[in-house]
Amino acid sequence: MAASKTGKKKDKTKGVYAKTQNVVVSANIHRDLPLEKLATKLERVEYNPEQFPGLIFKNDVPKFSALLFSSGRIICTGTKSIKEAKNAIAVIVKKLGAIGVKVTGEPEIEVQNMVASGSVGGKLNLNEIVFKFENTEYEPEQFPGLVYHLPESHITFLLFGTGKIVVTGAKSEKEIIESVYILRDQLKKEGELGEPV
After folding, report:
1. Is residue 141 a contact partner of residue 127, using CB atoms and an 8 Å limit?
2. CATH class of domain segment(s) 24-111
């Protein structure tokens, strides 16, 4: 399965795709962080220890947001690939070094969650799916999407009648793509995949 330049992954199955929208990673830089110093030296930060123990850091190029904790733990969000997320951590380490907070050694980075949007390639009758599939939640008066927890997985889908989907809980792009095809196969097996929109 080849990846196009837009970050979409496609194959011969028409209309089926998933595109990563957000990657959340945690990183351990193995040193304490002086948050009060960082709050005065770094730009685009918010630090209010009475309300929250972490420092909020925002960056424009590349675009991401991060929470920095005194323990040396960093949570980074807003990037669209694992490579971008690792680059964001490198940017933070570089900015720390520029103000005299040296980080030695490689940060320990772990993917916490990936969110992707995509399509299963056909219309969905959510009113039928909620009865045929276990692990679903659907309250159309409150929200037009159906929540489906993929069995024996940490993946959760948000399904819409148009066939559009949102995938959460994945730890890799491979896992996103595989889960979309598992979902599509389940829908086809139950006769719940309509014509393409």
Report:
1. no
2. alpha beta
CB 145 within 8 A of CB 160: yes
Structure letter (DSSP) for residue 31 = S
Separate counts of helices (H) and strands (E) for the chain: 4, 10
Domain 16-21+113-189 and domain 24-111 have a common topology: yes
Alpha carbon distance 80, 41 (integer Å): 28
Name, in order, each residue with C-beta under 8 angstroms of 124's C-beta and a sequence gap of 6 or more: 146, 159, 160, 161, 162, 163, 187, 192, 193, 194
- Report the share of the chain in percent with pLDDT over 70: 93
H or E element that contains 98: helix 82-98
Assigned CATH for 16-21+113-189: 3.30.310.10
Q: Are 161 and 130 in contact (CB under 8 A)?
A: no
pTM of the model: 0.86
pLDDT of 12-26, one tens digit each? 467 899 999 999 999
